[in-house]
Amino acid sequence: METKYSVIGKPTGNVDGMAKTTGEGKYTFDMYLPNMLYGKHVRSPYPHAKIISIDASEALKLPGVKAVITGKDVPGGKWGLWRRFRELCDQIALADDKVRFIGEPVAAVAATTKDIAAKAVELVKVEYEILPGVFDPLEAIKDDAPLIHEDFENNINATRHIEWGNVDEGFKQADYVREDKFTLFPQAVVSMEVHNSLASYDKGTGKLTIWSSTQSPYYLQLGLADALKMREGDIRVIKPHVGGGYGGKNSTMPDATTAALLSMKTGRPVKVVFNREEEFTTTEHRMGLHLAIKIGLKKDGTILARECKIITDGGAYTGLGATALYLAGIFQTFPYKIPNWRYDAFRTYTNKVWATSVRGFGAVPTVYAAEVQLDRAAKEMGIDPLAIRRKNLMEPGYEAPGQYKVESCGIVPCVDKMAERIKEKWPKLEKDEGIGYAGFAYMSGGIFNWIDTPYAYSGARVQVNIDGSVDLFTQAADIGQGHNTVAVMICAEELGIGIEDIRLHPGDTATAPVDLGAWGSRETLMNGNAIKMAAGQVKQKLVDLARAKLGENIAYDLVCREKRIYLELRPERGYSYYEMVEAAIKLNDGEPLIGTGHYTPHNKGMISPAYGMGIMAMKAKVDRETGLVEAKDVLIVHDCGQVINPLGARGQVEGSVHMGLGYALTEEMPNDNGLVLNPSINDYKIIRQRDMPQIELLDVPTYDPSGPFGAKEAAEATISPTAPALANAVFDACGAEFDSNCLKPERVLKAIREAEKNQKNKAKAKK
Amino acid sequence: MKNITNSFEYFSPKTLEEALKLVSQFDKEGKDFKVVAGGQSINLVMKQGVIAPEAVISIKGLSDMDYVKFDEKAGLKIGALATHRAIERSSVVEKKFGVLAEMEHNLSSVETRNWGTVAGNICHGDPGGDVAPVLIVLNANVKMAGVKGERTVPAEDFTLDFYETALAHDELVTEIQIPTVPPNTGVAYTKFSQVVGDFALASVAVAITLDSKKDICSDVRIGLGSVAATPLRAKKAEEILRGKKITDDLLAKAAQAAMDESDPTDSVDASGEYKRELVGVFVKRVGKEALERAKKA
Amino acid sequence: MKQELKFKVNGEERELWIDPKTLLVEVLREELGLTGTHWSCDTGACCCCTVNVDGMAVKSCSMLAMQAYGREVTTIEGLADGPTLHPLQQAFIDNWAFQCGFCTSGQIMAANALLNENPSPTREQIQLQLDGHICRCTGYNMIQEAIQDAAKRLQKSKV
To answer: Which residues, listed in sequence order, are joined to residue A464 by a DSSP beta bridge?
Structure first.
C-alpha cells in the first residue's frame, strides 16, 4: 500500500536489540550495587491466621544478618491502585495483625549474602493463631463465612452492574434462548524475570532510589509513597529493561516495599528477588470465576439480548481486580451489537493470592463464555458459526449507551476477509479435525481514572540539540511489547527524521514526565499522542522559521520529511532539518528546542478512546482415545488502525496467541485450601516450541481519529479469542462441550464421552 | 532464585578405582554423600533442600566411562558417563536401537541431554523417567561396581521403589548393557505428555519378536513408565501375546491386562484412573507399531 | 571450604576460588559479572540460563560450576566479534525474535550450538533443539524464523 509516512508502518527492528541480544542490557535482575545486602521474606504457612508474636532474636544473632523487620517497622499505611476509592487500597507491606494467604510476608531479613538471608528466614519464629479460611467465591459470600477484611461484608470486595436497553423485553421477543454456566480457572503470569527490586536510600537527603521490574514506574512511586509515608517526589523509580509483565507487574509488591524498608533501616542498598515458587504462590494472576450467561436470538441469528452474571475469586487483596470486573462486562459485548445487555458481577475476597490485570485483562474469561455459547446456539439453530457472527457485528459509530462509542471499526471487512481466506486455506479437514471461530476486541488504554492521578495520562518531553539529535523523555514503559521502538518511530515521523537521530530516556520518574504505564494496550495511543504533541511543538518552531526564511505565503503548507523542511507542493523549496535546528537554537538565545506533550482522553466515554478488533479461526485436531487436543493452525484478521511497526504488531499477536493457547489447553492453578499445587514451571505447563501452531495474520487497515497517525490497540485483543476458538474447534470436530478453559486431555476425554452419550440418547429419542 | 544453600566437600576422582575408594570410605564413615554425574536431577533436589549431603563426588570427569560401543555379539554398551545426547546422536544406536534415539528426542531438553547421563537418569529412580521402560523391553542389564567387585542386575529389577534403586551405597553404575536385538523384532515407544518433551503422564514401550514366518509372537516385552512406584514390566499382558498371532482383539486384551497391572496415582495433571486408561490406549498403539516394525525387520 | 576453579570463559583463562556448591550460573553472574546469562525457573525447566560448555548447550543453573573445570564456557557476552554482532544476534533483532528479551540469551546460545553442528537446520530441527526454552512473549515462531535467517547469513559469510 502507498504510504505517506517515511518511518511508521515500516518493519523496524527493536531499538533495544543490541542491549537484549548481547547481554549488555541490564534488567533489575542483573544489577548489583557495592555494599549491597540481600533481602528475603519470612512467609506465612497458613492461609488465614492471626499473628500472635514474632521473635527474630535468633536470626539477628546469625553473623551477616543486618536487619529483621516486621509489620511494626512499616511507617506508612495501606496502598492500592484503586486510589479513587480508598477503602479498596488494602495492600500492606508486611502483615501486622493477620495473614490472609499462604505465602503472605510477615517479616523480612537483610543479610550480606543470599545464603545467610535464607538461613535467617528459617530462624525467625512466628506464632500464629489459625483462623478458618475460605477458598471459593461461592463459599466466601455466605453469611457464616469467615471475614477476610473486617469492613467488607460477606467478603464482597467490589460489585459491578452494567445495563443498557431492555433485557427482559429482549428475551421475550427472542425465538431462541439458552443459558450456560462456566467456571474459568485462574492463569498465572509467569514473567521470565521474576519480581525483583533494588533500593538505595540516601540517609543524608532522605531520598530513595529504587530500580524495579515494573510495568509502571509512576504506580510504583505512588505505592511506595503510601507504604513508606514519603512524598512521591522523594522516591525515584527507575525501570531498567523489564523481563515481561503481562499485567502482573502493575501493583506495588513486597519486593519493592521490603527492599526500600530494609535499605532505610540498614542504610545500605538492598535487593529483593523472588524465587519462582514465590512468583507462583505470592504474586498476582488472572482471576478465576463462576459465570452464568444467557442469550436470546431471533431465528435469523440476530442477537436480541444477553445477560451475564459472574462471581470472581478475588483472593486476599484488590490489585487491579476491580478493574478487571468492569472490563469483563464490557468486552464480553464486543465486537457485536448487543441491543439489550445486563451484567452483574461480584468480586469476592478469598484466602488466596489475589487476582489482577493479566494480558487481555478482564476480557479473557468472559469472552470465552460468550463465544463458546454463541457456537452452541448457532449449532442448535442450524446457522453457520461465522455467519452468526457476521450478522451481529458492530459498525463505525456504534454506541453502547452510557459506556462506549466505537469510532474506527473494521470488523465487518475483517469477517468478510476471513470468510474468503478460510475457503482457500482449509478447503478440507482431516478426520477428527474441526474449525472454531471467535471475535475479539480490546481497548487502547483505559479511561476510568481509578488511580486518581492529577497528572495527564501520558506525558513526553522532546529536546532537540544543536546537532539535530533528539533526547526523548517519557515514563512510558517498554516491558517487552516494543514500545520503545514505537515511541522513537512516532517521534521520528513527526519531526521528519530517522530513529537513529533519537535517544530515548524511558522509565525514570526523576527525569521524565508521568505516564501511567504499560497496561491495557495504552502506550501506543496515549503515549504516542503525547510524543507526537511534544515533537509537534518543536516541529512547529522549525516550520515557522523555515516559512519566515522562505518568505512564503501563510497558506502554503510545509512538511518535515526525510530530514528536510519544505513546501509540500514544491519540495525543492526548503531547508535541511539540521540547518533549521541550528538556526532556531541560535535564535532562541542558545536554548535547545524543547517540546512537551501530554494526553488525557476527553469525551471518549468511560472505557477507551479506540478499539482494535478482529476475528480468529483455529484449526484443531482431537485424539478421541486420549483426549489430547492439538492446535494445528491459526488465522487472524485484525483491524488495529494504522500499524506503527508491523514487526512489533505481529510479535504481540504471536505472543497473545501463545499465552491464550496456554489458557486454552494447559494452564491452570489448582489450589487446595489456599495452597497452589503446581508452583513450578515443571508442573505449570506452558506451551513449548513443538506445540505452537503457525499463525497467519491479515490486516484490515483503518484510521482512528483518536490515535497518533490513526493508530490504536494491536494484538492484546488476540489472546481472548484463542481459547474459545480452540474450544469451538473441538466442538466442531467431535461435539464435545466444555464448561471451563484448560482443555487438558483428561477433561477432553470426559467431554467426548459425554457428547457421545448425548448423541446416542438423542438418536434413541428420535427412534 | 533458588541455589544450593548448604555447602559440601567436593571430590572429582580421576579414575573409577579412586571413585570407588571414596564411595566405600564415605560409606564406612557413615558420611552423607552423593554421587553426581551430570547432576541434572540431583542438583535440583539439592536446590530444593530435599537432600543436603556433606560431600559430593562428581564422576563427570571419568572420561574412560564416556562411551557408546557396539558389536553384534556383545550388543550395545553404554558407559556410565555417556550422555543422553551421545545416545541420541549415535549412528549405531539409530541403526540398531532406533527406539532409544526416539525416546531421547523427547527427553526433557537438549540442554539436559547434553550434560545428563543415561546411567544417572536410571540411578535417580524416578518412576516417571523416560529411559527405564525402553531399557526394560530391550532386555538391558545394569552393571555395577564396588570395591568388592562387580555385579549385574536386569534393568527391570533395578528400580525398587520411588527414588530407590538396587544400587548399594558403596557402588557405582559402570555400564548399561543391551543385547543385540533378535531378528524379526520390532520395538516401539511412546511417551504421552501434555506438552512435548514434558514428564510422562504415562509411557509405554513394547518389543515384539515374531517367529521365522513372521506370524506368531515368539517373545514380547512391555515396559510401562509413570504408572506405578517404579517403571514396570507388564508380564501378564505379555503372557496374553506370547506364542500367539497378534490381532487387534488380542492386543486389546493385553492392553486390559497392562491396565490391571499398572498402579498409577493421582497427580496435579491427571487422575490415576485416566493414566490407567492411557496405558490401555498406548499398549494397543505402541504394540501395533512394534508389530509393524517386527514384520519389516 | 573453597576450591579452585580454572576454566576458560569467552576465550579468557579464569582462576577463582569458589564454594563447590556454587552453580555455574552463579559464578558467571555473581563472580564474573556476566549478567547476560539469566536465571528464571529454579527447576531446570526453562533453559533461560543456557550457555555453551565445550560447544554444547547446557543449563548453567543445573550444573555445578566445579564441573566446568578445565572446560571452555561461552556466554552471550562472548558471541559478538567486538562491535560486530554475531549473525544470530543481528537476525534476532531484524526478525523481532525477542520481546522482553529475558530468555533471549539462552535462546541464542542454544541456537549457536545448533548452527555450529548443523549449518542449515530445518524448522523441525530448530524446534527440537530449542524445545526446552520457555518464552512467554514471542510464541516461538519468530525465533525459529530468525534462526533460519541467521543460518543463511552465516552461510553467505562463509562463501
So the answer is: A470, A593
What's the CATH fold of domain A31-131+190-282?
Aldehyde Oxidoreductase; domain 3 (3.90.1170)
| CA A514 – CA A406 distance, rounded (Å) | 27
pLDDT tens digits, A595-633: 999 999 999 998 999 999 999 999 999 999 999 999 999
* Preceding amide of A335 cis, omega within 30: yes
Same CATH fold assignment for domains A17-24+457-599 and A31-131+190-282? no
User: Taking CB atoms and an 8 Å cutoff, what residues of chain C touch A486?
Assistant: none
Kindly list the partner chains of chain B, i.e. chains with 3 or more CB atom pairs below 8 Å. A, C
Alpha carbons within 13 angstroms on the beta-carbon side of residue C121 total 25
Cα–Cα distance for residue pair A497/A501, rounded to 1 Å: 7
Interface residue B218 vs chain C (CB under 8 A): no
A17-24+457-599 is classed CATH 1.10.260.40: no
Whole-Å CA distances, A538 to A66, A515, A563, A564: 52, 20, 14, 14
Does residue B189 contact residue B204 with C-beta atoms inside 8 Å?
yes
Three-class SS of residue A602? coil
- Rounded to an integer, what distance in angstroms lies between the CA atom of residue A426 and that of residue A443? 31
E-state strands within A350-395? 355-356
Name the phi and psi angles at A684, rounded to 5. -95, 110
> C29: which DSSP letter?
I
* A114, closest residue in chain B (CA to CA): B5
Tracing cell 530530514 back to the chain, one arrives at A563
**Which fold, A285-448+605-766?**
Aldehyde Oxidoreductase; domain 4 (3.30.365)
Helices (H), B30-152: 42-47, 84-89, 91-96, 98-105, 110-115, 118-123, 131-137
Q: How far is A144 from chain C (nearest CA, A)?
A: 40
pLDDT band at A1 (very low <50, low <70, confident <90, very high): very low
Write the Ramachandran bin of A319: left for phi over 0, alpha for psi from -120 to 50, otherwise beta: left
Are B189 and B195 within 8 A, CB to CB?
no
Indicate if B194 and B278 belong to the same structural domain: yes
DSSP strand pairing (B202-210 vs B217-225): antiparallel
* B89 CB burial (10 A radius; 0-12, 13-18, 19+): middle
Determine which of B60, B109, B124 to mutate to test the interface with C (most C C-beta atoms within 10 Å): B109
Q: Does C85 touch chain A (CB under 8 A)?
A: yes
Helix/strand/coil for A468: coil
Distance CA(A359)–CA(A764), nearest Å, equals 46
The interface pTM score, or ipTM, of the predicted complex is 0.98
pTM (global) more than 0.90: yes
CA–CA dist A736, A748 (Å, integer): 7
Q: Is A542 left (phi over 0), alpha (psi -120 to 50) or beta?
A: alpha
Structure confidence by residue, pLDDT tens digits, A257-273: 999 999 999 999 999 99
Q: Which of C45, C78, C111 is the last residue of a domain?
A: C78
CB of A38 within 8 A of CB of A255?
no
